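Quarterly update from the structural biology core.
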Amino acid sequence: MSALLGYVSCAVLWLGVAVKVPDLVRHRRDPYLRAICAVLGLGGLCFFLGAPPTVGAVNRLSGVPNLAAPLTYAAITACGAASQILVTLWRGGPGVHRTARRWVLAYAGVVLCVAALFLLGDAPVERREDLDTYYATTPYLREMILLYLAGHLTAVTVTAVSALRWAREVRGPLRAGMLTLGAGAVCGAGYSVSKLIAVAARWTGRDWPTLGTDVAQSAAGLSAVLTATGVLIPLAGPRLAEWRRARRTYTRLAPLERELDDVLTRRRLRLPRPRWSSPATRLVWRQTSIHNALSHLDAYVDRELYDETHEAALRATGDPERAAATAWAAVIATAARTCLAEQSGCPWDGPAGAAREAWRAVPAAGHAGESEWFQERAPGPEALVRIADALVTSPLARGALAGARAAERSSAV
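Predicted structure, tokenized:
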């Protein structure tokens, strides 16, 4: 294995571990998280131990020629078992934890046998890249090589079949993750098969070094990338979907915030805009700004305009939610213009101005009742999105907005 391929593959997998470490610290008893970190961590360890510089360092520091080989084989076997256990845990079902424990015991036995066979064999010549084929005919080492390759091939085959079969039953990020993980397991099988063919060739007196080194290494590297991606997709998918929803909602609320921009600016109701923040944080900022403006406008709400617009929109669309959004869009646009005209010291003729003058003439108890009406019926986060859409798409809301702007211009003259 080339040093560059080994260390890059190791970095990819250990980066996945780093992403999950905070969750693992908070939920250290979660078997799914432990299996995920085991797959990624052991996969990275395989490539780290299999890189020629690491092989040489381990052999030199230990004083045992080829000691890196059984360590790498043990890591490969454990990684294949961890992938198999992860898919088993993800799929669930009765007795899933008992099945996982059986796999752990079985592959622990394989690792112990690999260690025992290495101790029984004789490997005096250091081989950093082609030990499998070089010692393919050596007693005990031959059995060690066959055992680890057969164990790995069994694990990745079961993983591939389970993941690809399960992918047909699920949807969304989990399906994408299972397909990718299954493809990674297929590439892992390609590694074992390439090695086995190269070993079998040595038994017949042939030497196919390219198959046992270059082809197998390429399959292993691709398997590492696909495995890491497949494990992380189901974990990152929901978060990415949430970010997309937040970004979409943030964009849809822009017309409503623009309509309230003058109120927010003049009354200093807007919080500082967050920088370098997630879509969810920006959405909360925009929603908070809108709610601040609406709270300031509660005294300018025209109930009659709301009722008239609501009835007209309900007759036109037959949809209560769209009718309420259209009515609120008309009322908010008119209230914002009324508020700004009053703050500018300009009289405002027309329905909104008359409503505001009537408001002034009502006793304090009437003001409280109007405010309570607004607080009880104030739009929530989902309704705000429909109101913002209505400002752009509803003829009734656009008509009220145009009328409010025309009244504002005429009052300013």
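Residues 209-252 form the longest helix (44 residues).
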